[in-house]
Amino acid sequence: QVQLQESGPGLVKPSQVLSLTCTVSGDNITTSGYHWGWIRQPPGKGLEWIGVISYSGYAFSNPSLKSRTSISRDTSKNQFILRLNSATPEDTAMYFCARRQQTHEYDAWGQGTQVTVSS
Predict the structure, then answer these.
(1) Is the pLDDT of residue 49 over 90?
(2) Is residue 61 classed exposed, middle or buried when 0-12, 13-18 and 19+ CB atoms within 10 A define those classes?
(3) To the nearest whole number, what is the mean pLDDT of the chain?
């Protein structure tokens, strides 16, 4: 069964790059039809879609974050990577990675990782 696991620093300083890695097992991130996404939930707020990378390597992101967002992948490690430039305290959130099927359903999620942006 597919499993996803987020990893990366739990504390990021303002103006630095917030970088997280999602490691996927039980599925291949190059399998046709899938997208691999990042979602976050700030304290006291709802889920916010950050972006995805497709099975073929094309990345798409939320317009509100697009200018600061880079999503890439390492197919040799079956990982995809989130980078948010110029982090601010408003980027403090629980960050999740998830699989999106052809139906656009996010059917598999990592457990989430807390990231705090603070000096």
Answers:
(1) yes
(2) buried
(3) 97
Identify the residue with better confidence: 103 or 72. 72
Q: Could you tell me if 28 and 50 are in contact, meaning their C-beta atoms sit under 8 angstroms apart?
A: no
Distances (CA, A) of 71 to 13, 45, 107: 20, 23, 20
Taking the C-alpha atoms of residue 44 and residue 37, their distance in angstroms, rounded to an integer, is 22
Nearest to 7 by CA among 95, 66, 70: 95
Which residue is listed with tokens 């790059």?
17
Type of residue at 9: P
Cα gap 13→117, rounded to integer Å = 5
Closest CA to 63 of 46, 82, 50, 45: 50
